[in-house]
Prior knowledge:
The chain is α/β, with parallel strands linked by helices. About 30% of the residues lie in helices and about 15% in strands. The chain contains nine helices and nine strands. The protein has helices at about 1-5, 25-35, 45-65, 80-100, 120-130, 175-190, 210, 280-295, 330-340; strands at about 75-80, 110-115, 135, 160-165, 195-200, 225-230, 240-245, 260, 265-270. The strands form two sheets. Strands 1-7-6-5-4-2-3 form a seven-stranded mixed beta sheet, sandwiched between helices. The protein is globular, with a radius of gyration of 20 Å. The N and C termini lie far apart (about 40 Å).
Amino acid sequence: MVKDQLLDEGNARLNLATFCQTYMEPEAVKLMSETFDKNAIDKSEYPRTAEIENRCVNIIADLWHAPKDEEFIGTSTVGSSEACMLGGMAMKFSWKQQAAKLGLDVKAKRPNLVISSGYQVCWEKFCTYWDVEMRTVPMDWEHQSLDLNHVLDYVDEYTIGIVGIMGITYTGRYDDIEALDKLVEEYNQHTDYKVYIHVDAASGGFYTPFMEPDLKWDFWLKNVISINASGHKYGLVYPGIGWVLWCDQKCVPEKLIFRVSYLGGEMPTMAINFSRGPRKSSDSITTSSVTALKATTTSTSGPTTSPFTWPKRSKSLASLKSSTTVAACRLSATATRRTKITSGPSTTWPTVWQ
């Protein structure tokens, strides 16, 4: 009866509007079904699942040029919206610590977040839920991304951060993160109230590194401290997967990390959600690892072994917590394969972006 009620649903393979037209192999779907019953928050019960997430965080950190001399930290999330929430919370709590040290009255006015008017609704939710003033920089025909001529007009000592967007839904444009970084660097040289950049790379985070590898937008830049991305957009996985990474552990206030012990051992966790259901749990983790290996070993051109290693040069949040929803292994490996067998300039855009 329930199945009959779904007969007139849309075809997910044709759903370009929400970037959910991803295809996954039958064996991946089967493997997912075999792990639906795992609650991946329980790290002590499912340690290999947690380790696979840890590997994925390391892969993404390398993909986004995390500094070699700093200890990056990151985690999987329930969609990119939760990733944005966590990135925003880290900025707000860090700002509050900084303001207290400098003697600023944090109760005199609300903190604010600066972003272009092309933002995704999750940022409006964040500002509403956490009582932050959203300062939107208007977009127009001449400025179809963040207006760098006026962005700093919206910044003051109560600004928790600036959000740059890699892939604006309305225009398909990137914010010029490199130019924004230069503006922020100059601003920070003349004030004690430092501001930093969070990059909302929900669309571009798993696209740009392969299609425009020379574009500087990520942790290459000094003032970019955190990045989020969606796995179900250009991450080539089913909906429900998100990621957020910080360039250094010091960017995540300790107050945001909670420790629970009732699952059999003390487990640090940083998440809005706790238990993880289907598509946001162990099923995605296990298929990620398998598909990553398959994607890098089945290409007829290029090496027959995976180009990836599992670096252990830093603690990831995945090694500190157990909210483990994973898919980027498949993303990174498959995207790498695509660049090997695809000819043409790196600036070729898919139809949806044109």
